[in-house]
Design brief:
alpha+beta; globular; 4 helices; four-stranded antiparallel beta sheet; five-stranded antiparallel beta sheet; Jelly Rolls; 158 residues
């Protein structure tokens, strides 16, 4: 299973931040760390219907989400970003300790796997190469979010 196909923005893709391979004994395990199917609002194990809010801006970051299938939209104040199969989201709040910075809504029927904070931290500690790549992607995402915030503040003041 591919963890990421380049992050959310073209800048991350240009930076070569692919997390192409982590050895998995099964599709629901990442190198021995449980990837739990997310319980959807409808109650179906690991399945989320279209137009379901997965993450709410301002909430505490308690899990990272991996898109096994489907597509989601990250709704930032200044832009919307589409993520699909093989990509991930929710890592930034766990790495920074800050509240979630965006809403994330499913665009299609999705199968999402999640890695709880404690498992995420153990996984990163045991896999320094993956940690470095996820950290680079998170930094790129944070930098782009800050640029968006600055542009928004400039447009409001003008």
């Amino acid at each position: 299973m591919r963890i990421c196909n380049g992050g959310y923005w073209a800048a991350a893709r240009r930076g070569g931040h692919d997390l192409k391979s982590v050895s998995h004994p099964s599709p629901d395990r990442a190198a021995g760390y449980p990837l739990r199917p997310r319980r959807a609002a409808a109650g179906a194990r690991g399945q989320t219907a279209a137009a379901t809010r997965i993450i709410r801006r301002g909430d505490r970051g308690d899990a990272a989400f991996f898109i096994a299938s489907g597509a989601v939209e990250v709704r930032l104040p200044a832009r919307r970003v589409r993520l699909g199969t093989g990509e991930f989201f929710g890592e930034m709040a766990m790495l920074s300790g800050k509240p979630r910075q965006a809403d994330v809504v499913s665009l299609t029927y999705c199968r999402l796997l999640l890695l709880r904070k404690a498992d995420f931290e153990r996984f990163l500690a045991a896999n320094p190469d993956v940690k470095a790549k996820i950290t680079r992607i998170a930094r790129t995402r944070l930098s782009l979010n800050q640029e968006d915030a600055e542009r928004t503040a400039e447009s409001v003041s003008n």
